[in-house]
Amino acid sequence: METTGFTKHDHSRCIEQGVAAVDLACKQQGLQLTKIRRRVLEILLARHNALGAYDILEKLRAEGFSAQPPTAYRALEFLVSHGFAHKIEHLNAFVSCVKPDAAHVPVFLICAHCHCVAESCMKPAQNLLGHVAAQSRFQVQETVLEATGLCPNCQETG
Questions:
Q1: I need a labelling partner for 68 at 20 to 30 A (CA). Which of 38, 114, 124, 131 fits?
Q2: What is the DSSP letter of 84?
């Protein structure tokens, strides 16, 4: 498993690659990545902290979008429903998906101090829950794995 959320890296590259991957997926699936959906995605990609819908709405308004709450929620709903973003249930907030073009079970590592979120990925077949469900002939439709702790940066600063 690889994580990028806790390591120093070029966020502009995250934005560029993330938008390109989502743009391609939308074209392949016949979906429309509207200006507002693209901007919400860029906002999520700019940081690895989970953002609430109202945080996103504030950023949109500050940039001159005449955004109302339903606008942000609809954009987030589109991104989440197509696997381009995830909802972090523990924080009632959203993050961009690190692998929007691959089937995977996301594993979220959430820092309790700085709220940075790193996403790791497991293949569905590697998921222990999948094995347990298969033994019971239960078909898992969605899995969300969230772990809360301290990221390496917060561990270092005490």
A1: 114
A2: S
The answer to whether the beta carbons of residues 95 and 116 sit under 8 Å apart is no
Alpha helix (H) ranges present in the chain? Answer: 11-29, 35-45, 53-62, 69-81, 128-135, 152-157
Contact of 48 with 8, CB cutoff 8 Å: no
List, in order of start, the domains of the chain with CATH numbers.
11-96 (1.10.10.10), 105-157 (3.30.1490.190)
Above 70 in pLDDT, residue 3?
no
**First-residue to last-residue Cα distance in the chain:** 26
Which pLDDT does position 1 carry in this prediction? Answer: 39
Cα separation of 64 and 41, whole Å? 17
pTM: 0.83
- Contact criterion met (CB below 8 Å) for 56 and 70: no
Task: Supply 27's token pair.
Answer: 């074209």
Cα 54 from Cα 72, distance rounded (Å): 8
Cα gap 24→30, rounded to integer Å = 10
